[in-house]
Design a protein that fits this description.
InterPro entries: A-crystallin/Hsp20_dom, HSP20-like_chaperone, Small_HSP. The protein has 145 residues and is mainly beta. The protein has 1 helix and 7 strands. It has a domain of 77 residues: Immunoglobulin-like.
Length: 145
């Protein structure tokens, strides 16, 4: 249903580990997700706390689903003096490589309590189905040569 490996994501993770200096900690993934199948649909949930609905973009092109979100500063202005800033800000994106067995034309997206939930139906062609067996009631014919 979904490709489990993303070589670019692994490269980003390794680069982050390489350039994280001693005594510093690396930030967690900005867009963690869960993916699972329930009945005839595939469900993907992304944690996007603090992101406004209008700051989320979803695109599908050739079975690649791209989720892009922007977390903007909650407090800005001349009178704001930030004391601690641990929550990552900026634009985050993640790509999922969807299999041909998913119906990308009918993806449903909901956003509630900081969780983006995508419901992707299983394509009709991928669902199990019964196949009728045809036959002839006349039985076998013998052919004499």
């Amino acid at each position: 249903m979904l490709m489990r490996t993303d070589p670019f994501r692994e490269l980003d993770r390794l680069t982050q580990q390489l350039f994280t200096g001693p005594g510093t900690w690396s930030r967690p993934t900005a867009m963690p997700m869960d993916a699972y199948r329930v009945g005839d649909e595939f469900v993907v949930e992304f944690d996007l706390p603090g992101v406004a609905t209008d700051a989320i973009e979803l695109d599908v092109e050739r079975n690649v689903l791209t989720v892009k979100a922007e977390r903007r500063p909650a407090h800005s202005g001349d009178n704001v003096e930030m004391q601690v800033s641990e929550r990552p800000l900026g634009v985050f994106s993640r790509q999922l490589f969807l299999g041909d067995t998913l119906d990308t034309d009918h993806i449903k997206a909901d956003y509630d309590a900081g969780v983006l939930t995508l419901r992707i139906p299983i394509a009709e062609k991928a669902k199990p189905r019964k196949i009728a067996i045809g036959g002839s009631d006349t039985g076998r014919k013998e052919i004499n040569a």
